[in-house]
Amino acid sequence: MPYTAPGDRVRALVGPKRGDGRTATIEQTLEMAPGRIDPECRHFGDCGGCALQHLPHSANAKFKSDQLLTALRHRGFSEIAINPTITISPGHRRRVEFAIGRGEKPILGLHKIRSKEIVDIDTCPAIRPALSALLPTLRELLRSTELARHAQDIRMTETQSGVDLLFLSSTMYSPDLIVRQKLAAFAEANDVARISWSDREGGEPLVQRRAPNIKFGSANVSLPIKYFLQPSTAGETAISDFARDAIRDAKRVADLYAGCGSLSFPMTETANVTAFELIDDMVTAMRHAAAGLSFKAQQRDLARSPLTEQELNRFDAVVFDPPRAGAKDQAEYLALSKVPKIVAVSCNPTTLARDLRALVDGGYVIDHITPIDQFAWSAELEAVAVLHRD
Q1: Range of the domain at 170
Q2: Nearest residue to 356 (alpha-carbon basis) of 364, 307, 276, 348
Q3: Which residues form the catalytic set?
């Protein structure tokens, strides 16, 4: 349960079923376990973004590995061993999404756990300093414009060319000239690279002083308005290193759910890589960055139209990094294929275990699994599994 520690004695109210367990609410803490540490953030206990700040590093790492082991055992992997957790220290998250609260004075923060109530946050030690430093001035921007009436969230990303801000709205709205002028002044005063707006009709950049870009391997990718990016540079590097090491002998590699190519481009150092991605803007961004590389990008909805075993058999290795829902149908086709090597990356231990079960039942052997904790102080967990066909 959030905010508890191993060894605590609590009185809890058990709630409805959720996943493989049930939700629970602490009614009273009867006895606290020894070994707790003081949380670094003054919002801890109210903000739902972090629920593990009171645990020391070793306890946090064990919690993450136990979480992965539990999911694997639920799928019948009782004897499997996993590598020690790779932990990315707090303060390195380069990508975060804050909720915008409307009212007499708009607020900016994160929701309480299992609540629609927003905790107003003025600083956040979990994210990069450049992002945390923007929170007070962003709040003032919201209060001096009508943006809070239309936007529900703001996505903040620290790119290699500066901070990229994206307002997210579920309504149709186009900021007027006065708002755009204020956004331009805000970007100039705070050295923001780009400010964009996205609603149900699409998205547009409102201010662009520099193109937000990220370098993956030797490719410099100019990021579209919406894109997938690993939450930390160190986490991205760890995942990429595992993938490159696993496919080092492969000459033809498929990268499924490729995003903007964070895994694809580094692999072009040793292989011809084909990246498959659903979102057209990310496919276009990869194509523009691929000049001179052994690389091509294809748009494909792998949830509705996964690669068949015949298509997969063209490759010596396959890397896949799906959304939280996993790659159920694609994993089943992979299980029928003859691909010698597979690297599975996931941010959801439950769906990872399900997909690994399909692969192992199809004849694959798990070489190793490594938990990667990019989400310091939260229960979220990334993991990388490397498999070969027996």
Answers
A1: 95-208
A2: 364
A3: 347
